[in-house]
Amino acid sequence: MGLEEKLPAGFVLTTLENVVGYMRKASIWPATFGLACCAIEMMAVGTPDYDIARFGMERFSATPRQADLMIVAGRVSQKMAPVVRQVYDQMANPKWVISMGVCASSGGMFNNYAIVQGVDHIIPVDIYLPGCPPRPEMLLNAIIELHDQIQHSKLGVNRVAAARAAEQAALGAVPTSLMAPTHEHHAPLTATPGRNLLA
Amino acid sequence: MADAKPTPATGEGKSGSFLGDLFAPIAGFGVTFSTMFRKVATEEYPEVKRPTAPRFHGRHQLNRHPDGLEKCVGCELCAWACPADAILVEGASNNDATGERYSPGERYGRVYQINYLRCIFCGLCIEACPTRALTMTNEYELADSSRAELIFTKDQLLAPLQKGMLQPPHPMADGMEERDYFLGKVTQATPAQQEWVETYGVDDPAAAGAPAAKHRTAPGAGVTRGKGVDR
Questions:
Q1: Interface A-B: count of C-beta contacts within 8 A
Q2: Total domain count, chain B
Q3: Is the pTM here over 0.80, yes or no?
Q4: Whole-angstrom Cα distance, residue B133 to residue B131?
Q5: ipTM of the predicted assembly exceeds 0.90
Q6: Do A191 and B92 make contact, defined as CB atoms within 8 angstroms?
Q7: Can you tell me the distance from the alpha carbon of B230 to that of B225, in angstroms, rounded to the nearest whole number?
């Protein structure tokens, strides 16, 4: 695609966004990127019983240049990280990433030096899918969520604006050490007014 | 091809009428067409959801006693058992004097969070739970687009109120003590509890799930107060 990216804002762009979103979401070719046990469930989705072809994902592309969607299935080791990034870079735009399973999403139970604590440290992730491993229906659910996201994605100048806004938000993000706490830690000590708990 | 004589060895070249030969190449579509009227043997996931196994390890649920009080006593054994460190629990003391009673007995789980991007659904937390407060449901549709969204908090994990239940905080059923709850003697909320909730109770369930204690730093203890009084 190329022409639709050059159209000015407000010029048939919203209708075109819908059409292009519909076309794009219905013809995603996933790249094979099975790294561990989640890959078995990913392969199960390709079998006739689950039949990923119903979603227009006819074939798992063994070459990244013909793929639109990267399903990172399994834990990413530090040694695999540059490979993941290279395969992602070789994919043509527009491209999406599903981080399948807890290991790819956050490191999962492998909270150690060997495993990248979430593949989003390396590549942008569109959909996080919990599960260890997720059952095939869960992957299909993630794909449907991604379809929804693609359907509502922006085009042309709108896309540039959205990307800029996302970048600003990312630059403005505070490190977790400076984030507001999710809850008050000292509440139990003040929960009984009028009574000294330490007395 | 041109040979009209049948060759039994290969089975090919079945001679037929003119019409038979004409439609032979598209006869395969007949199979495709007739399949449309057959029962579907494959998964039709988004439209038809096959039920999971009854003991499927899905999303967690924090259960309640029949009168609405929470079963969780904030012991943190689930967090301790978790091999992936996915659970965060902070307990706090129930206090009848200030109207903070979320569970029968001494303590309740004030903060309860499960990180579904760490949880491996092994069920060790369920085994560890001494009060059967934490169980698993068969729900599995959890995919989301951000990591923060997948940390489920207590208000998302708590079981919805069913018939006969009242939104905590509220006192224990009259005449009952903690042990009676676990012996199954409490079957539903009593009229006295109902009255208490109407007087002092929390209208907004979301507010009750949130960590309580904002107003309680104010002095004036000794009076039975609920959250609703301060509004």
A1: 137
A2: 1
A3: no
A4: 5
A5: no
A6: yes
A7: 9
